[in-house]
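Journal club prep — side note

Before the paper discussion, L.F. wants everyone to see what a predicted structure for a comparable chain looks like in token form. Sequence:
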Amino acid sequence: MNLPAPSTQEDVAHILDVLTFGEIEVEGRLVDASNLALLGWLTLGDVRTRVIYKPIDGERPLWDFPQGTLAKREAASFVLSAVGDWNVVPPTVLREGPLGLGSVQLWVDAVDGASQSLVDVVTPADLAPDWLPVFEAQLSDGTPVVVAHADRPELAAVAVFDVVINNADRKGSHLVLDQSGSLWGFDHGVSCHAEPKLRTVLWGWVDKPLPEAELARLETLVGWLGNPLSPVSQAINALLSSAEVEAVSQRISALLATGRFPQPSGRSPAVPWPPL
């Protein structure tokens, strides 16, 4: 059976033990992934669960990210998500596997079509009042459309988290709902860069005040990162460069200083392609 997505800290701790010490059996490859992403089973004792294993040796070179660091960024994103209480990244560890060191992440059983209930392309007439437009476009036949997302607190929380990790690839398809309705995000390999690279479809709250819950999360996280002896600082420093860790703290401080959702920088594309 597949382990259910965690709902408590005890669940997370148990799953992390399984991910860290279980034996990985590769079943197949996700052919749509831009880097090598292997679907497999992980077994520890009488526990057996699906995982996604992304070996570092399967990462294709990128001009703007250091080679061999994407798996570490996947693991760092989980740490920041968990410590900041966003709990949007499935449990993820960096460990050895059949093809060498890589990230191993719990597989989340998603509801079919759930991504379209969060982010979608609609005609202007079909834009629901509880949805927020991001940008306008045209289909090949000239039909006007709008890329938009739902105005939901849990999506707004992901938007804040993406600013913190400097997510360069928040597509709509990287967001899913599990069978209990909880929101999860994945594919965080191109994140946590020291230079501004935020590309996301979640721009609907630009300049709006950050919710109190998000401010509290940011305060908690900056407190942990501000203590170099904290387990959080030690974990993050083992996964990211010193410049990247400092940039995380700077992004959090900037959010706390303004208290608002940021605007696109205007210096680079603000939306990933394709957006969905």
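L.F.'s comment for the group: The first strand starts at residue 23 and ends at 29. Keep this in mind when we get to the figures.
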